[in-house]
Amino acid sequence: MDIRIKNYADARDLKELKYIFVDALDVDPTFVRYEEEYNYCKSIPGLLEAHIELTPFRQDKSRWDEAYWTSLKIDLVKNFSDRRMMHMKEVAQVFLAEKITRILKERDAAVATPSITSSPVPKIEIKVEPASTTNAVPSISRAEQEKRDLEEAKRKLEEENRRTEAARQAEAKRIEQQRRIHQTTTQTAPTGDSSKKAIGIAVAVFAVAAVVLILVLK
Questions:
Q1: Structure confidence at residue 89 (pLDDT)
Q2: Per the domain annotation, does 48 fall within a domain?
Q3: Contact 25, 88 (CB under 8 A)
Q4: Which pLDDT score is estimated for 62?
Q5: Is 163 domain-assigned?
Q6: Residues of the chain falling short of pLDDT 50
Q7: ∠ at Cα 203 (200, 205), nearest 5°?
Q8: What is the DSSP letter of 128?
Q9: What do you get for the CA distance between the two ends of the chain, in Å?
């Protein structure tokens, strides 16, 4: 098992684990290199999330192209579900078929190569021609572009989380202010008995004043 992944798993570092597995199929589309580690980490609480439908899964394999692959990786950053990971393993068999073939050949060659040989290994001289710089146009590799897309998706996700937290705090502050206003109003409002008592006093005062007025007029 990859010791780095095991350390992240034992430390419950879900963020780093997700980033590793998001790029795992680009590194090894056969997933042999990560199968054991992924099965080990699946049991960690919080790593796998309930599946949320984002980019609809395509069943037409002829449409499993680079754009679809990139969208699946971005969706995996947003919603790390086992269902999406399994679908990506299927897509990798088609979209990264050439890389899978190359990796399998390299593995077969490594197994077939003897560890000790009695015959001398011929020295092969390789002549490297200098690359022409005429009309050179800088380009970005597919892996680099995917890396940039993932970084952008991570940035947007973190920004969205910050906005959600700010909105939650603002709402909590508003509710607390309303609660305080209601509490203050309740404490200062006259009770029913106090209101009745005040009305009784007012009536008595009015009656006395009326009697005095009648006596004066007589």
A1: 96
A2: yes
A3: yes
A4: 95
A5: no
A6: 116-119, 128, 132-134, 136-137
A7: 110
A8: P
A9: 114
Specify burial of residue 149 (Cβ count, 10 A radius: 0-12, 13-18, 19+). Answer: middle
Read off the tokens for 16: 């780093």
* Backbone Cα Rg of the chain: 37
Tokens of 45: 């609480």
Q: Which H or E element spans position 26?
A: helix 14-27
Q: What are phi and psi of 86, to 5 degrees?
A: -65, -40
The residue ranges of DSSP E strands in the chain, in sequence order, are none
Give the number of domains in the chain: 1
Q: What residue numbers bound the domain in which 64 lies?
A: 1-112
CA distance 132 to 120: 36
Q: Where are the beta strands (DSSP E) in 5-113?
A: none
DSSP per residue, 23-63: HHHHH-TT-HHHHHHHHHHTTSTTTS------SPPP--GGG
Please state whether 12 falls in left (phi above 0), alpha (psi between -120 and 50) or beta: left
In a domain, 38, yes or no: yes
pLDDT score, position 169:
78
Residue with token string 């599946």: 51
Instruction: Take residue 217 and report the two structure tokens written for it.
Output: 């007029």
* This prediction's pTM: 0.53
Looking at residue 118, its pLDDT comes to: 47
Is 139 inside a domain boundary? no
